[in-house]
Specification:
This protein is of the alpha/beta class and about 300 residues long. It has one domain: Ribonuclease Z/Hydroxyacylglutathione hydrolase-like (Metallo-beta-lactamase, Chain A). The protein has 6 helices and 16 strands. A hairpin with a 2-residue loop joins strand 4 and strand 5. Helix 4 crosses helix 5. The protein is globular, with a radius of gyration of 19 Å.
Length: about 300
C-alpha cells in the first residue's frame, strides 16, 4: 500500500524525535555527572566595569556570550537574556544540574546590576537564568517578559511587565515592541503555557531587532527595515525546526532589510550536535551572497551599531 502524506509526516516526526533523543543522550548524562563533581560553581571573579564602559558610548552593544547582550541606546542601558552563570539548568540542592559554559563570561552579574531594562525572550534555561537574575536584581531595573514568564523573575526587580506579541511599551525614550518568532517556550516540557518573544527596540531613529531563538520565518520581513539585527545562529542540528541555520538567518535578515547583523547563540554552550565553530564558519561563508553585513563580536567588546550599519 502506498503511503499518503499523513503517513510520511508521521514518519518524519518519528525520525526527528529519534534524532533529538540521541542528541540529548550524548550530552546531558555527561553534563549531569560534571554538575555533581563541579567545585568551581559560584566562584566570583573581579568586576570588569562593563556597565560603566558601555555608558560612555551611545549607541553601543556588547556581547556577553551565548544569547546575552548589553546595550546603551538613547541613554537607556538594557540587557537581553542575561546568562552569566558557569552552568545552565535546574537548581537542585544548591547546585545547577546542566551544561557547563565552554568559555568564561566576560562579566559577572554584579557588573551589570543597575541596568535600566532587562528583556527576556523566553523561559529556556539558556535564556532565563535565575541565578544571574537574582545576582543582578535592582529596584531601579524594569523587566519585560513574554506571557507566562513573569513568575520566574525574582521579586527584587523594580517592575516586571508582560508584553504579548504585537504589543508595545515605552521605557523612557525608547519603545519596545514584541514579535512572535518560530520557537517554543516550555522550560520543563510540561509548562507549555509560556510564550516566546522577539523584540524590536526603537531609539532616536535607530531600529534594532533582538530576534533571539527562531526557526526560519517570514515574520520579521513585516517589521523591517532594521539598522541592527541580533539573531541566534547555533543549535540547528538536530533542532532546525526551532533554530534556523546560519544561511536561513541571513535570508531572514535580507528579507527584513537589516543593514547589519550581530550573531549570538553560539560558541558558549554545547546545546546541539554541530561543531562549536561551525555556525560562525557557515555564517561568514553565506555572507558573501547576502546584502546584510555580519558584525563579529568579541566577548565583552563594544560595538557602535550605527557605525557598523553605515559600513554595511
Amino acid at each position: 500500500m502506498e503511503k499518503g502524506p499523513a503517513d510520511a509526516n508521521q514518519g518524519d516526526r518519528l525520525q526527528r524525535a529519534v534524532r533529538l533523543v540521541r542528541s540529548t543522550a550524548r550530552r546531558y548524562p555527561r553534563a549531569l555527572i560534571g554538575s555533581l563533581m563541579d567545585q568551581t560553581e559560584g566562584r566570583i571573579t573581579q568586576p570588569t566595569g562593563l556597565l560603566d564602559r558601555i555608558r560612555t558610548s551611545d549607541p553601543a552593544f556588547a556581547w556577553l556570550g551565548h544569547a546575552s547582550l548589553i546595550c546603551h541606546l538613547a541613554g537607556v542601558t538594557l540587557a537581553v537574556d542575561p546568562v552569566l552563570s558557569s552552568r545552565i539548568g535546574a537548581r537542585v540542592g544548591g547546585r545547577t544540574l546542566g551544561l557547563p559554559r565552554l568559555v568564561p563570561a566576560p562579566a559577572t552579574p554584579a557588573c551589570i546590576r543597575g541596568v535600566d531594562l532587562v528583556l527576556l525572550t523566553h523561559a529556556h534555561f539558556d535564556h532565563l537564568d535565575k541565578p544571574t537574575l537574582r545576582a543582578m536584581a535592582d529596584r531601579g531595573t524594569t523587566v519585560i517578559t513574554p506571557p507566562g514568564c513573569a513568575s520566574l523573575v525574582p521579586d527584587e526587580f523594580g517592575a516586571v511587565h508582560t508584553l504579548g506579541a504585537g504589543r508595545s511599551r515605552p521605557v523612557g525614550p525608547i519603545r519596545v515592541t514584541a514579535v512572535e518568532p518560530r520557537h517554543w517556550g516550555a522550560r520543563m516540557w510540561l509548562d507549555r503555557h509560556r510564550h516566546v518573544n522577539s523584540y524590536i527596540v526603537e531609539a532616536d531613529g535607530l531600529r534594532v531587532l533582538f530576534a533571539g531563538d527562531t526557526a526560519y520565518t517570514h515574520v520579521f520581513s513585516e517589521h523591517g527595515p532594521f539598522d541592527v539585527a541580533a539573531f541566534g545562529i547555533g543549535a540547528y542540528n538536530p533542532w532546525v525546526h526551532m533554530h534556523a541555520t546560519p544561511e536561513q538567518v541571513l535570508t531572514m535578515c535580507d528579507q527584513a532589510e537589516a543593514a547589519c547583523m550581530v550573531p549570538i547563540h553560539h560558541s558558549t554552550f554545547e546545546l546541539s550536535d554541530e561543531p562549536t565553530d561551525e555556525p560562525m564558519r557557515r555564517l561568514l561563508a553565506a555572507e558573501r551572497s547576502n546584502s546584510t553585513r555580519v558584525v563579529e563580536m568579541p566577548l565583552g567588546a563594544l560595538l557602535d551599531p550605527t557605525e557598523a550599519a553605515s559600513r554595511a
